[in-house]
Every structure is written in structure tokens, then in C-alpha cells.
Specification:
The complex is a heterotrimer of chains A (490), B (350) and C (202). Chain A is mainly alpha-helical and 490 residues long. Chain A is 75% helix and 1% strand. Chain A contains 20 helices and two strands. In chain A, a hairpin with a 4-residue loop joins β1 and β2. Chain A starts with 13 loop residues before the first helix and ends with a helix. With 202 residues, chain C is mostly helical. The chains are: A mainly alpha (490), B mainly alpha (350), C mainly alpha (202). Chains in contact: A-C, B-C. At the A-C interface, α4, α5, α6 and α8 of A face α6 and α7 of C.
């Protein structure tokens, strides 16, 4: 055993190592420079930039394995990591003012965010079930603490508790599934599992049994029905800056989780997991859209909208393999990636909008708080209009193209009924997005307090919203990118 | 020896292993109890000496029969059970304390060539495990007594003993690194070689010199683990009277008392094995032998008593600070130092 | 039945009984202590399987540290047993159903057909084999990356625990030991030179 061991090549994992080292440095700097509050956020964003540079430097044409094949560096991992840094950095910048006004801008917030980022990076680069699990735990543990950070808020504490208990349950499900996979294939390395499946000398019964648990775990982490219970409470209860964080980058990691487990590892069982995902997706789209209508709290509404969006993403994944025919595999997984990217972009901006309207001692999270926004700030009302239209899937914003791509691929896979159903549901869902628009433009404002957010938030949020509009005008750019990445990867 | 045992072996047949093990257990426990008994009287005499007074010298010549008198007295005292106590656990407390204090001796090698009850591969781990159970005796007693003072003592004990186990375990990691083994016999054997040993000054080759900070950490943590002065806030007679032992009388109290002294002897023995070369002699021209280990244990016991006579009691927050903010960082740094040392060309433990 | 089998049944019986007592004991402290007993017996079974490292680690980590703190907390809680036990009979059928379901699932999956000793045999043990050494070797070579990640998770746990519990109270009278220790003589006393009696001529 020892003779065969080769010291691992650390170079492909340079971004992770750098980020971990920086997190430890920031831990000390934060202790020593506790008077200068700007240092920790600045250093956090700087280390994300540094990690991004390293990711670009270490990006490779081919898949590179290291750490005894537990770590993979391929085009998909580099792409998803870069997006993760971007969305984490955006979330940190959006949330800074909000946290400062509520005395929550402790150094630990930024540290936990960095560790959560590390967890996502680990998930994205995992080539081993165990490593994936550890990445999930690293991410989740940081998120639990971030949700509970506002100790004065009973709602936040309750949300954190719920998140923690259900998250632990989901981890248990995942682990149970992994143990079954290990029992059937004798390995936890994703590529070895895939090989063992291809050779066919495995016990499918045990594997399918394990697959049920794996899919449940993935479903929980993505927050789709029937594992969605935590989403509305956590999104609602957590401080908005944390909701913003949870609602954005972890979805990218969730995509990586699904792709690495189901596509890289268990593609031969696609028939089974596609059926499971289809059920999950359909129920999520129904429940997400219908429940969102009943919400008056915009954070809760966006939470239910997340559920339906994740359902759409899963819908794309179900189109990959048709009776052993994998011609649709690439389009399906590319579409799913495109959908996630589009969703993260929109989620960042829409939660950013709530932060923008909030101020010290006031949370702009009720639908009523958006009334007459046009009169208070026509520019941001326009931005919000873009976001809501895009989330609703109204042409021609990025959200429309994402939904369109999913429906195309679903139709191509022969599930026309499902596609029609999804269209009807999104039409119903458009109602609650448009209701926000109606509030902004046709209702009179409850108060005329001017928006107090800092310039950094205003500018970044405008860029973010305009990107949603612009990428809707040029949808091919992102799709080509996703295509390039996935073709390079597989 | 084997020839001598042969007739017994044939007599007991397959049960011989059981009988022989029990005999060995008695062979370890009986001298230990004598040692413990005489440590109590030794402590009082030494304290007397240090306080410039006499100490107990009435019973027998120089007071040598004092422990017997004490034992008889305690045995005939009434065992009082507080009416609101949890009866089962109230009795379980002292039994756990005593059992744990005795069990750990099973892995102590008294001399080379298998003079040990259980020559376990993972001896150090087992030692850490067994000592970590010691706290249960205190907690159970403190809770079952249903008394505020006892409960406070139990709380203090739980926090203190868990904290110092961390430092102790980290200190032992350094020992493991240089010994490349978890077996106690191997750990002693490693200390018998080295540059100084080849010059005849063996005691400079023992682990205490290269691991001097760890030696200090281990010894002091050992004092804290056994709840002895100056870390005896668990008993803290000036504030919580006697902590977990407050409600116990007669043999219940005696068991706690014996367990404490057995633990002191154990920590001395372990310090001797880990850092002071166990049964090896300090100089090359003197033969190794059990005698040296005994001497080191006695020296350790004397150190314990000396501490008690010298230092005032630490305040509780100071104890926790010492454990977490001083010892743990020192240990972590020294693990790094030893690691680098072992990688460097000046590695002395090849 | 050889001695090992006898020991296995002994440990297993005590394990199951103490496990049951954990959930049926009326007193939470008793429940925790039964859990400790259960850990001991689980460790015993592991020892029988020649996994001494796992066994001892279970004892060090769970019995030596986790359960002590558990006990610490449970003893200080004022648990109203009546209110907890009220729902017992109500939840019992559901709980039993889930328990039986899990047993059935485990039995079908593990019941010889898929994970039998013939399909997944235990690796042969070489002479001089040391459980601890082998585990360490694998942990620090092949599994170095997951191992390091686990340590990062622990670091996050520390940070999270400190963040969520550290509260700087203004009314506390706690003393800072470091400040106390850093005190110099000159901070506390001032030596004033003064004559023993009033100078003449004033």
C-alpha cells in the first residue's frame, strides 16, 4: 500500500489551498485589527479574487486528478468555481451595509462565508463520495451558523435549528446511500464506481436502493419537493444577507453534486434516477408556483420560487438518456447548467433588491414595502421589473431563454406532456412575479423615505440587473460557454 | 519458573489461564494498595516535615501502623445515604472511581520481557481512554448525592478533567511521534538508546530532555487530572467543603481517597514510562530493573506532595486558562517543532 | 459455543438492553449513563472484530469526552419528565412502524444475499499487523485530502460555536488572568520616601 503511494500534486488544488490559508490568515487579522471593520470584508473579497486568479492559472484542458484521485480539476470545476467566487463576492458586497446597520458585521460572518465557499469548491471538485460529503458538511455547517448569527432574532434561531436538524437528516440519507454504493461496487471513487457499473458485475438491487437515498440527499440540498420544508423558513428567518448567500452560490454546488454523483458516477442507472428526478421536478414546479401565490412576504415568495426553479433545473437533467440512447445527454446537462447560472444571477439581484430597500431598523421584505417604488426610485423599479420579468420567464430576458432551453430539451426527449404542464405552471407562476411589478408601478407608496444604500451596492446591483437583461439579448454567449465547458469535461 | 508452575497448570487444565491472570492481577493490585496506604501516611509525615511539625507518629514505630488504624476506623464507620440521594448511583460513584484507578495499572509495564498484565499494542490510547473515564466517578457521585456542594464539585470536575485531557493527549502525541509506537514497552525501549546513552549518561537520553516542555505539560496536566493541589478546586474545602465527597462517609469516602492516591501513583508511573525511561537506570554502569521504576514512582509521589505544600490553590478560571490558552498552544507548537526536527538531518530518533 | 461467541452474545445482549433503557429510563441522567454502557459494549464488539483502534477511539471520544459534556448539560437541565412522556403512547405506533421498516430494509439488504461474508470477505491479517498503524498509513496517504477537510470542518465548528455563544456582557465581574499576570510592581504600589518625622523649621 505504502509503496504505491505517490505524494499528491498540490498544484491543481491551489485555489482551495490558497482560500483555506487566507481564511486562517483572516482569522488572525480579524482578531488583531478588530477596530478597523473594513479590513476583513476587503481581505475576504481579495482572497476570492486571488482564488479566481489561481483557478484560471490552474485550469486545464483535460481532467486532472490528484490526492489519490479524490480531487478532480476539469473544465466544469473551473467554470463553476469562477461563478461561485463571483456570486459569493457579490453576496458579500451586497450584504455589507445591511450587516453593519444590524451590528452583525462580525469578522466571523466573512470567515464562515469563506469556509462555505471552500466547501462549495470541494463539492465542485469532488471525485469521491466521501469528499463530496465532507464538502457538503463544510458548506452546511457554515450556513447553519450564518443563519443563526443574529441571536436576538427568534425567527433566525428557529430557522437555523430547523435547517440544522433537517440538514443532518439529509446528510444521514446521503451517507446511507453512499454506503450502499460502496457495498455494491467496492469503491467510493466516482470514476471507479462508473467503471464498475459499465463492466456490469455489480448488484443493481443494492445500487438502486442506495440511489433512492442519494437522490433524496441531493433533493434536500437543492430544496425540491418533498425535501423543501426548510427552504421557506430558512429564507424567511435568516438575515437577508444570509438568504442572499444561501440562495445563490450553493445552487451551483448543488448542480455539481447532482452531476458528479448521477452523471459522472451512476450514469448507467439513468433510467432509475431520471424517473425519481422527474417526480421531484414536477411536484416542485407545482408546489413552488402555487404556494408562492399565497405569500405576502417577498422573501418567502422568492423561497417558493426557488423550489420551482430548482424543479425546472432537475427537469432538464431527466432528459439526458432515453432507453440507452445518450444523444440528448449533452444538451440536457448543458441546459441544466445554463439554467442554474441564469437562476443564480437572478437570485443574487432579487435578494439584493430587498437589501437595497432595507435600512436600519426596517426590513423591506413585505410585498407592501415595494408599493410605489416607481415614485421613490424609478431606476431601481426598472431593475426590479427586469428581474421579475426574467424570473417569470417573460421574453426576452435570461430567465426566458433558460426556461425555453429546458422545455426544448424536454420536448426533444419525448416528454411533451411534461413540457406542456411545466409551461402552464410557469404561466400560473408569472402571476406572483407580475404582482410585484403591479405594486411598484400602480400602487401608491406607503412611505417616501429615500433609498439609503451605499454607492457600491447601487452600482453592483444595477450591473447585476442589467446583466440579466443583456444576457437575455445575447443568450447564445452563455449557452456556448456552458457547452464548451461540458464538452471539455466529458 | 515454568517448571515450577507446571503442576498447577496441569491441575487447572483449560482454566489455568484464568487463574494465572487473576493471580497476576492480585500481584499488581496488592502491592499497589500497600503503596497507596503508605502514601497517605507518607504525605502527612512529609507535609509535617515541610511545615516544621511532627505529623502522625503515634501508631506504631514512626507511625507505620497509621494506615491500618485509619482503615479499620473507616471500615467501622456508618455508611450514610442521604435520603434524597439516587441510591444506585450513589454507590456506583466511588466504585467507578476506584475501578478506573485500578484498571489503568493493567497496561503499566513494570519491567522489560513482558512484566505487564496486558501488553496492548495501542497502550497509550488505552491509557488515555481509561483515565478519561475517571471523571465519571466524580460526576456520578456529585449528582447522586443530591447536594449543591457536591454538584458544584461535579461540574468543576467535568470541565477541568476534560480540558486537561486535551493537553495530556497532545503532549503524548510528541512521545508517540518519536517512539513510533503506541506500546508502552516500546516507548521505554526507545529511550534506552541515543548519543548520551552511548556515553553512559543514560538519563540524558530519556524523553524528558528533548521534550522538556511536553514533560512539564504532562506532569502538570497529570496533577490537574487527579484533582490534586494546586488544582483541587473540585474538592475546594474552603468553598465547597469537599465537593463530590461531601456526603460520603466510611468506606464510600475511603474508596475515593484510595482512588485519588492510586491515580497519583499512576500519573507518576506514566510520567516515568513516557519521559523518564521507565525501568532503565540513569547511568550505563548500573543495571536496569523494576527497582528504578519504583524509585521514579516514589519520586513522582513526593513531587505531588511537595506541590501541595508549596502552592496556593488556583482560581477556577485560572485553571481553565492554563489548560486551554497555555498548554494546548504549547503542545501544538511543540508537535510542529518535533515534526520538523524529525524531518531535519539532526533527527536523533532514527 | 467458544469463548468469543459467548462474549459476543454477552456484549450484544447488554448493548441491546442498555439501548432500550436509554429510551425507556425515566431519569435523563440514567438514560445518559445507559448510553455510556451501550458504548462500552459496542466497543467490546469491535474489539472482538479485531478493530482495536476503532474500539478505543469510540471510548476516548464518546465516553471520555462527548458523554461527559452531555452528562454535564443533562444534569443542569430541569427536564419536566411528565411533559416529555405525555406523547409517548401517541407516537409509539408510528415510531414502531418506522423502526420495523428500518429493520426490514436492513434485513433485506444485509441479509446474506448481497453483503455476505463470501461476497465481501474480511482481508487476511498478516503477522505483525497493527490496526492503528494501517489506519494511520491510509489516513495520511490515500485519504489525506478528506482527512484535512475533516479538520477544516472542525475548525468551522469551533468558529461557529464561539460566534454563537460568545457574548460580551458588560456587567460581568470576571477577571482577566493575562492582565493580572502582566502586572508590574510599579502599577500597584508607589514607594514614597518620607521622613520619619516632620522636618524642622516649618
Amino acid at each position: 500500500m505504502l509503496n504505491q503511494f505517490v505524494a499528491p500534486d498540490l498544484y491543481p488544488a491551489a485555489p482551495e489551498i490558497f482560500l483555506l490559508a487566507m481564511a486562517c490568515v483572516i482569522l488572525f487579522v480579524d482578531l488583531l485589527a478588530s477596530q478597523r471593520r473594513w479590513i476583513t470584508p476587503f481581505l475576504s473579497v481579495a482572497s476570492l479574487v486571488g482564488a479566481a486568479l489561481l483557478t484560471v492559472l490552474t485550469a486545464s484542458e483535460f481532467s486532472v486528478l490528484t490526492f489519490s484521485n479524490t480531487y478532480i480539476n476539469d473544465a466544469l470545476s473551473s467554470f463553476l468555481k469562477l461563478l461561485t467566487y463571483l456570486s459569493v463576492a457579490t453576496a458579500l458586497i451586497y450584504g455589507r451595509g445591511y450587516l453593519r446597520e444590524r451590528n452583525l458585521d462580525k469578522g466571523e460572518y466573512y470567515l464562515l462565508a469563506l469556509f462555505a465557499t471552500l466547501g462549495m469548491m470541494v463539492m465542485i471538485s469532488a471525485n469521491h463520495f466521501l469528499v463530496m460529503y465532507l464538502g457538503i458538511e463544510l458548506l452546511s455547517l457554515s450556513l447553519y451558523a450564518m443563519v443563526a448569527m443574529d441571536r436576538e432574532s427568534v425567527r433566525a434561531t428557529e430557522a437555523a435549528m430547523k435547517y440544522f436538524v433537517l440538514g443532518a437528516l439529509a446528510s444521514g440519507l446521503l451517507l446511507y446511500g453512499m454506503s450502499m454504493v460502496y457495498g455494491a461496487t467496492g469503491s467510493l471513487e466516482i470514476s471507479v464506481v462508473a467503471q464498475a457499473l459499465e463492466q456490469g458485475a455489480v448488484n443493481k438491487t443494492v445500487l438502486v436502493f442506495g440511489l433512492v437515498f442519494l437522490v433524496s440527499g441531493i433533493a434536500f440540498k437543492l430544496g425540491v419537493v418533498p425535501f423543501h420544508m426548510w427552504i421557506p423558513d430558512v429564507y424567511h428567518g435568516a438575515p437577508t444577507s444570509v438568504t442572499l448567500f444561501i440562495g445563490s452560490a450553493p445552487k451551483l454546488a448543488g448542480y455539481a453534486l447532482a452531476i458528479r454523483f448521477l452523471v459522472s458516477g451512476l450514469l448507467d442507472l439513468a433510467v432509475h434516477w431520471q424517473t425519481m428526478l422527474l417526480i421531484l421536478a414536477v411536484f416542485s414546479i407545482v408546489l413552488g408556483n402555487l404556494a408562492a401565490i399565497a405569500q405576502t412576504n417577498i422573501k418567502r415568495m422568492l423561497a417558493y420560487s426557488t423550489i420551482s426553479h430548482m424543479g425546472f433545473m432537475l427537469l432538464a437533467l431527466t432528459a439526458g438518456v432515453q432507453g440507452g440512447n445518450t444523444t440528448l445527454a449533452f444538451p440536457a446537462y448543458i441546459t441544466a447548467l445554463y439554467y442554474v447560472v441564469a437562476y443564480v444571477l437572478m437570485a443574487l439581484a432579487s435578494f439584493g433588491m430587498i437589501i437595497l430597500l432595507s435600512r436600519k431598523g426596517f426590513e423591506a421584505e413585505e410585498l407592501e414595502d415595494f408599493k410605489g417604488l416607481n415614485k421613490r426610485s424609478p431606476w431601481f423599479a426598472l431593475m426590479m421589473l427586469i428581474l421579475m420579468f426574467s424570473l417569470a420567464g417573460i421574453p426576452f430576458f435570461i430567465g426566458f431563454w433558460a426556461k425555453f432551453a429546458v422545455l426544448t430539451v424536454v420536448v426533444a426527449s419525448g416528454k411533451v406532456a411534461v413540457a406542456v404542464f411545466a409551461v402552464i405552471m410557469s404561466l400560473i407562476g408569472a402571476f406572483y412575479y407580475l404582482r410585484v411589478v403591479k405594486c411598484m408601478y400602480f400602487d401608491s407608496p406607503r412611505d417616501m423615505t429615500p433609498i439609503q444604500a451605499g454607492a457600491d451596492l447601487r452600482i453592483l446591483l444595477s450591473i447585476n440587473s442589467l446583466a440579466v437583461a443583456l444576457l437575455g439579448v445575447f443568450p447564445q454567449k452563455v449557452i456556448f460557454l456552458c457547452q464548451y465547458v461540458l464538452v471539455r469535461t466529458f | 519458573m515454568d517448571a515450577l508452575l507446571q503442576p498447577f497448570q496441569t491441575f487447572f487444565g483449560p482454566y489455568w489461564i484464568v487463574v494465572w491472570t487473576l493471580l497476576k492481577v492480585v500481584g499488581v493490585v496488592a502491592p499497589l494498595l500497600v503503596l497507596v496506604a503508605y502514601t497517605t501516611v507518607g504525605e502527612r509525615r512529609i507535609l509535617g516535615m515541610m511545615h516544621i511539625r511532627l505529623g502522625p507518629n503515634r501508631v506504631g514505630p514512626f507511625g507505620v501502623l497509621q494506615p491500618i488504624a485509619d482503615g479499620v476506623k473507616l471500615m467501622f464507620k456508618e455508611v450514610i445515604i442521604p435520603s434524597a440521594a439516587d441510591k444506585w448511583l450513589y454507590f456506583l460513584g466511588p466504585i467507578v472511581a476506584m475501578t478506573v484507578a485500578m484498571t489503568a495499572w493493567s497496561i503499566v509495564p513494570f519491567y522489560d520481557h513482558g512484566w505487564v498484565l496486558a501488553n496492548v499494542d495501542a497502550g497509550v490510547l488505552l491509557y488515555l481512554a481509561i483515565t478519561s473515564f475517571g471523571v465519571y466517578g466524580v460526576i456520578i457521585a456529585g449528582w447522586a448525592s443530591n447536594s449543591k456542594y457536591a454538584f458544584l464539585g461535579a461540574m468543576r470536575a467535568a470541565a477541568q478533567m476534560v480540558s486537561y485531557e486535551v493537553a495530556m493527549g497532545l503532549a503524548l502525541i510528541c512521545v508517540l511521534m518519536i517512539s513510533n509506537s503506541l506500546n508502552l514497552t516500546d516507548i521505554v525501549r526507545v529511550q534506552q538508546h541515543g548519543l548520551f546513552a552511548s556515553w553512559g549518561v543514560n538519563f540524558l537520553s530519556w524523553n524528558w530532555l528533548p521534550l522538556l516542555p511536553m514533560f512539564a505539560v504532562f506532569l502538570i496536566s497529570g496533577v490537574a487530572e487527579t484533582n490534586r493541589a494546586p488544582f483541587d478546586v473540585v474538592e475546594g474545602e474552603s468553598e465547597i467543603v469537599a465537593g463530590h465527597m461531601i456526603e460520603y462517609s466510611g468506606m464510600g469516602f475511603a474508596l475515593f481517597f484510595l482512588a485519588e492516591y492510586a491515580n497519583m501513583a499512576l500519573v507518576s508511573a506514566m510520567t516515568a514510562l513516557f519521559f523518564l525511561g521507565g525501568w532503565s537506570s540513569p547511568f550505563g554502569f548500573l543495571p536496569d530493573g523494576f527497582f528504578w521504576l519504583a524509585l521514579k514512582i516514589l519520586a513522582g509521589l513526593f513531587f505531588f506532595i511537595w506541590l501541595r505544600a508549596t502552592f496556593p490553590r488556583y482560581r477556577y478560571d485560572q485553571i481553565m486558562r492554563l489548560g486551554w490558552k497555555v498548554f494546548v498552544p504549547i503542545c501544538l507548537v511543540w508537535i510542529l517543532v518535533v515534526g520538523l526536527w524529525m524531518l531535519s538531518p539532526y533527527n536523533i530518533w532514527k | 459455543m467458544d469463548f468469543k461467541t459467548f462474549l459476543f452474545y454477552l456484549f450484544a445482549t447488554i448493548l441491546v438492553v442498555s439501548g432500550l433503557r436509554v429510551i425507556t429510563a425515566r431519569n435523563p441522567v440514567h438514560a445518559v449513563l445507559f448510553l455510556v454502557l451501550a458504548f462500552f459494549n459496542a466497543a467490546g464488539i469491535w474489539l472482538l472484530l479485531a478493530a482495536e483502534y476503532l474500539a478505543i477511539t469510540l471510548l476516548v471520544v464518546y465516553v471520555g469526552a462527548v458523554m461527559v459534556l452531555f452528562l454535564f448539560v443533562v444534569m443542569m437541565l430541569d427536564i419536566n419528565l411528565e411533559s416529555i412522556r405525555r406523547g409517548f403512547w401517541h407516537h409509539l405506533p408510528f415510531g414502531t412502524a418506522i423502526g420495523l421498516l428500518m429493520v426490514a430494509e436492513m434485513a433485506t439488504v444485509l441479509g446474506g444475499r448481497y453483503f455476505d461474508a463470501d461476497i465481501l470477505p474480511a482481508p487476511a491479517i498478516a503477522p505483525g499487523y497493527s490496526n492503528v498503524k494501517e489506519l494511520g498509513r491510509v489516513l495520511y496517504t490515500e485519504y489525506a485530502y478528506p482527512f484535512e477537510l475533516a479538520s477544516v470542518i472542525l475548525l468551522v465548528a469551533i468558529i461557529a460555536a464561539v460566534t454563537l455563544t460568545l457574548r460580551k456582557r458588560k456587567d460581568t465581574k470576571a477577571l482577566n488572568s493575562s492582565v493580572q499576570l502582566a502586572v508590574k510592581r510599579n502599577d500597584r504600589i508607589r514607594i514614597v520616601r518620607m521622613a520619619a518625622e516632620k522636618e524642622q523649621g516649618e
